[in-house]
Amino acid sequence: MSGGRLDRFPVSDAARAQADRILQHLSHELRQPLSSIESIAYYLEMVLANAGEEVLDRCAELRRLVEESSWLLDNASLSMRVGEAEVASVPAAGILERLAAQMALREERNIELVVEPGVPEVMAPSSVAAQFFDHLLKFFRCVAQCADPLRVTLRREHGSVRLAIQANVGPQPGEFRKTLDPPPCGNGVRRFMEAAGGSLSFEQGEESLKAVLLFQPGEKPA
Amino acid sequence: MSGGRLDRFPVSDAARAQADRILQHLSHELRQPLSSIESIAYYLEMVLANAGEEVLDRCAELRRLVEESSWLLDNASLSMRVGEAEVASVPAAGILERLAAQMALREERNIELVVEPGVPEVMAPSSVAAQFFDHLLKFFRCVAQCADPLRVTLRREHGSVRLAIQANVGPQPGEFRKTLDPPPCGNGVRRFMEAAGGSLSFEQGEESLKAVLLFQPGEKPA
After folding, report:
1. Cis amide linkage into residue A184, ω under 30° from 0
2. What does CATH list as the number for B6-215?
3. Domain definitions of chain B by residue range
4. Which of A:159-188 have CB within 8 Å of B?
5. B14 in reach of chain A (CB within 8 A)
6. Predicted confidence band at A127 (pLDDT cuts at 50, 70, 90)?
7. Shortest CB distance from B11 goes to which of A15, A54, A62?
8. Which of A5-19, A51-65, B46-60 is predicted with the least confidence, judged by mean pLDDT?
9. What's chain A's average pLDDT?
10. Measured CA distances, B158 to A100, B84, B161, B162, B214 (Å)
11. pLDDT at B210 over 90
């Protein structure tokens, strides 16, 4: 892990508030063109239904690119907020179960969540923890091949709590890894894990990507 | 003008550096999906040349939306940097002449720049001044109707230096005004003018938008 610990940057509240305001404003402003791009993609898919597979693929790609852009905006907002959040014991299992249920309900996306019985809570920046887990699942939902399930496991491992998320992402898992954890500095996801005092690593298959997150166990049992 | 003077937010260098890094990173990351969207728009325009005007209009709109998104990214970066720039005497006339020449060269965009002889320099955040004028012209270039020129004038007025930029922007000038100076807080453009100790206002015609910027005269004659 690179040495970019957050506590090297003591940041005043006013500074944070100002930067956060600029970023929030940018996010808000960018939603408009992004949503127009998405609408145009839907429109083109509809009127060009007979234009051939290549054209329809490009329209679907347009929509995926809009989703990716939205994810990047959320990611920057997470980056900005991680530093101000207090690290405390967080019920990761409960949060993941709720998110998986919502995801299954809303999108019929197949998600296989396996939580080891009695797994402890985890230490993490508490005020952004729910946002973080949602953000991480969204990434895999966005890049996973449609028919394939997301495989999520949460269990004890050598005194840590280990969260693994795996999906079949098609032929370029390295590209997606770079989006999730861009060199050299990482972004929202890595910053969150560093603030939590945990670690983030990846395992790449030929068409699959697995993110492995190790947390320090929290104060309470699940 | 709203009371959002920058000096209300004393911001440490470390904080600024951190926020700026997050934003720069976001801009860098977002360029990729945006440029892919632009490429797809070009591709669709090419293969769908016979698909009818409506479809081609939407493809052109896609490209405009990408341009708008890039502009919003630059705008946030300007917002973030205005605060750290020293206010000093800036050769606005020279900068505008250079930008207009570049614009004419690169794009055959018709720009009518009228600079009053002997107009003084202007007080402005100096390290971002060239970026600011470029950014402002880009906005008008992006929203102006193709065949129409941008009209830019720089002259003395009641002890100030007045810069006006006018373009025919089509039926919704109010929408473009909101992008350039969104309520309630404004963004890069307004923050720059506040830091400069100047003012920003607009004149709307039925299909035209004019931005009027008043600067304090700088220390040197042009």
Report:
1. yes
2. 3.30.565.10
3. 6-215
4. 179, 182, 185, 187
5. yes
6. very high
7. A15
8. A5-19
9. 85
10. 65, 29, 8, 9, 10
11. yes
